[in-house]
Structures
1.
Amino acid sequence: MLFFPIIASFFAFGALTAVASPAPAVDTVEKRQDASSVLAILSTLQSQTGSILPQIDSLVNSDAATEENLTPLAQQLVAALNSGGASLESLRGRVNQDAASNDEAAEKAAAIYTDITKSLDNVKTKKPHLYPVFPHFGLEAALLKVLLGLELVLFGVLKLVAVLLKTVGGLLKGLGLVLLVVALGL
């Protein structure tokens, strides 16, 4: 009687051992990149926003801004930010970081956020009835996506960006970008 459970457990253990497959051998080890790929993404994002934001400012300053002509620009801005955030997230865990690259990335990100904040403040000041076009397309979520992607790739850079954005912190609050203000700790 006692003999059968012992034999059955040995057979069960043997069956599990035979069926279990070993872990696949790793043929190649993925090489970690330096922070230049992060800086390239931020430079691309800066050039994209650098072409969109002057158009927004020009429309608003010339009193030619309407919902119809701001909507595509808002969509382009959000798309550029989402693309940059996705590119940063794809580098997660694959970038070696150093203090110099963190500083440079923080400066680029802060410049992008400062430019966006100033343009949005211009819209809200001069054409307040048109400002809701931007939050409608998920601008704050896109801004957060870039910041969090940057933090995932270069740990600690969020604090540096927050320090650099202290000067526009009041504008961020005034624009209703509360989640962004909270994420930055402003």
2.
Amino acid sequence: MNPPPSNKIINCPGKRVSDYLFVKEIGKGAFGQVFQAKNLLTNEVVAIKCIARSKLTDHGGIVGQLIQSEVEVLKQINNQHVVRLVQYLESANQCYIVLEYCNSGDFEQLWQSRNKRIPENEATNYMKQVLAGMQALHEKNILHRDLKLANILIHNSTLKIADLGFCKQLSDPNQQEKLSLGSLGNMAPEVVEQQPYGMAADMFSIGSMFYQLIFGQFPFTNQSQQKFLDDINNNKPNFRRNGLVISLELEQLLERMLMKDPNRRLKWSELYSHPLMQQKDLRYAQLSLNAIQADLINTKEMEQFYKDKDQNKMVEKPQDILSRLNINKQQEFQINRVVSQQLIEDEGTPGQLEDNIKQVEQLQQNMEQQIQEDKLVEYYIDKYMRLRDEIVYVSRTLNEAYENLGLDQCCLLCLVLAKKIYILNERLTKTLLEKDNIFQINDRILIKIYAHQHFEKFIQQIVEETTFAKDYVTYFAESLQHQPKLLQNKQGWHSEINKEISPQFNQIFKEVLNDFVFKLMEKTHDNNMKKEYDDEKKKSDNKHLFQLQIHLIDCSKYDKKYNQHGVIQKLFNYQKVNIYEQFDGLANKPVFEQQQLAQQRFDEMFD
């Protein structure tokens, strides 16, 4: 690495600004550059936005205004879902916004890596994180105005709203602004039309981004402003785009979030009272770092905040930080100093840079190693969580049978399912608590995995679920003793009428599930033969039977279906199963498709 042949102050790796040493350029835009840097006193890794002071008066002073807006907004926010301002510095030639560094890129990159399709349940959890950041802005009456996937950064699976230069702080929660800033595609129509707008504009942007995550494109065209307005004036969002089927709940939610008229658009308090935003029982949820992060967000508190806000009960009305700036009249912009009242000295001449080159090269290696280790930690945490997927699948199947059929019809089935859940839970609990290195991870990474706060939450969840599973076994075993008729002509199954796990359990488990599948098939046939049932009644009754039939067959053949090469495949090349799609997604399919899938699964029973 050689320093550039110039005597002027430049921004490049090796430059030192105050206590920060520039290590690597990580971004470049029309107004400046972004560098990964390290604080030489604290060892903190940061991101530094560099903007030439000569740019501040560009576009009638709007560049300077955007910088001041971002700094002033970030000074007020302390929330893990908004990028943190570390420091603001100025030299004679440059402005430096020092921000926390995010090690996993931006949300748009993640979305693209998933082929621009994120399933409904995952997208909902991601949006909860974004909404937590939005609430932090709205507490200060701040509109984001440029909310898009690229403006959300990711650090250790936590989403953080960034690029707040377009933010606008209102002096009153009901105030409306008339400055048009933002990105076509996510911009609310009232912003595009340069009409007055308030916080309902951010609701449209959130809805547009939510839609984009799932369907792979914007709900309305972004080819031009006029085409966008024509589209939203004449059409509703397409909720069958690309052949996807989403839940009716989500469809209705998005439709209201994307209303053209801001007065008819979903209110923020209504968003948090919606069923999709409520806390979920993690026992029936497929876990991921994203899911655990979303579970930590208190949506009830957020709902109450917006109810109070909608009723104009805001305690604080911060000063409008932009009211004193008149873009049209401003001839020259002088940004207020945020941290230091004195200019710092730039240290970026070739001689100074050359002295730092070797240090920078070593820092680059160390930082890259740290980033790769962080990614490995998340990768292996995900693999550990996948070991729980079968537990969730069987748990949801048990719950489905119990709710749709009742205890008197499926007590034996529920007992063997509960025992299966307990066996799997106990095995996984033992693996986790004894720190059994089943993935053959090096000690350094394994230590980091067990120190990760979300992995600690995962272990706690597994331990609690093992206790729940044991209680379920006791409950169903005691209930079955009062229903001896369920075991008529099933002499070989009597060993399971207790809380103990018999040596023959695995064989009996499959026999009980297969026997119940045949009973479900008989029941659907009987429903179809009932003359007093109209077609809708038959569909309604058979719908749940087809779904349960599919799930029981999957439970009996889980390893063969999802881990086709046994334990080694399960540990090292597992196939990730989207359990939400297997249950909630299946429930959204037409009955005839469910029947076809049930028949396919039945045929697989004899493979």
3.
Amino acid sequence: MSQQKQRFFYPKLKLVSIVLLVFILIITNKHLNLQQAFAEAIIWVESLGTLGPIAFIAIYNLATLLFVPGSILTLKGGCLFGLFWGSIYVIIASTLGATFAFLIGRYFSRNWVRKKITKNPQFQAIDKAIAKEGFKIVLLTRLSPVFPFNLLNYVLGVTQVSLKDYILGSIGMIPGTILYVYIGSLATDLTRLDSSNLPNTPETQIARWVIQGIGLIAFVIVTVYITKIARKALNESVVTTQITEEK
């Protein structure tokens, strides 16, 4: 195969591959109930003693890549390890899993997207603007549970957001993580704990209200913020185009 054909074929093959992979993962998760399987795996972690935290982090990483919602694993992490260590392990696990997904999205799709947006100055301007404000955007989206965590990992990999800003911005997960771990730490039965069977205490209700409140505020802020920087980027792009045409 000639180099010209390779340059044409391979980016498209990568894109098709990741679209098929995402589709397969979503269908598999829906029909095989991967969430339940991972929840049961966490119960097995309890019997591993000192190796438990390592196994928990590995399972959490895999669940993140497979689009399994992390909330139930976070709750079980709190029940299993307590508030302090549960928070530490979940933060490590979710950050690693999110970073792996980000890198997969970047490796498979970024080149194809870059070639496409070079044909559209407006999209290119927005992409660059998002890259400049990468830390803030990642931070705000992490604060809000409205944005799907697992999907967002892959989507951000396609943008120009730097890996450094992505990892640092992921500290936005910490408040929600600690609150979910706290709710899990209030449970007494690891096997029965799930998102529909939470500890029935005033503390649990307050924690849920706090999570929802923070999430709503962050959602509004990030929506307004992204709209603002996108509009600014588009205006700058139009001005640049006009200056170029005049020359």
4.
Amino acid sequence: MPKAADVQNMFNRISRRYDLMNRVMTLGIDKRWRRAAIRAAKVDPSTRALDVCCGTGDITFLLAEAGAEQVIGLDFSEGMLEQAGRRQAGYRDQAAADRIQFLQGDALALPFDDDSFDVITVSFGVRNVEDLALAFREFARVGRPGARIVCLEITRPKSRIANFFYDIWFDRIVPLMGAIISRDRAAYTYLPESTKAFPRPPQLAEVIRAAGIREVSWKRYGAGIVALHRGELPIEPVQETTTAASTGTERAAGAADTVEA
């Protein structure tokens, strides 16, 4: 995996065409996946939400539109945050946009106190962090008791046929699109490489649980190429005597590896 500074520079380079590339690359279906993430977050008017690796703010704005009282979008790319700020200035729902604050920061060292947020989201971002386990420990640290943790990420599909078309799309077509639309083939060659190295949904669920997050489950979307993980922080400290039973229940919940469009 490239060093953090290299990944940061890459996202700075592609930030201006990032949204357009996402729409073209996913044929616009990514909007449906993001709405599913918002439903999983269960936002209400008292929610204080953090969107980590927010990019240009797709999930950030949706959290605010869903009614969250305050939303913070955090990213380490200045270029992405610059685009997010431009969107915020002319956003269609200005009341929602006014409840958003964008900050530059590191997912591995979140600049917030413990127990600060009711919802923590990350979409298409944890694949790029150097220490996945540390990232989820940080999410758990800043979450309040009962906080919802929602992760949306690209993954390899389960079936051989889907994998065949997945490889053609991401290994050949997406880099070509990146060269034409973003004028950066290298950035969109990194995408399939990072996806191949990323844990599959069951393994990612174990990483999330190891961070102290409970009730972990996941669901696949888009013919299995995207996984939506959801978990909650315990309201009360987890007792050692109940850990084994709790883990067994959570594995059963996560085992329903279903697929939606």
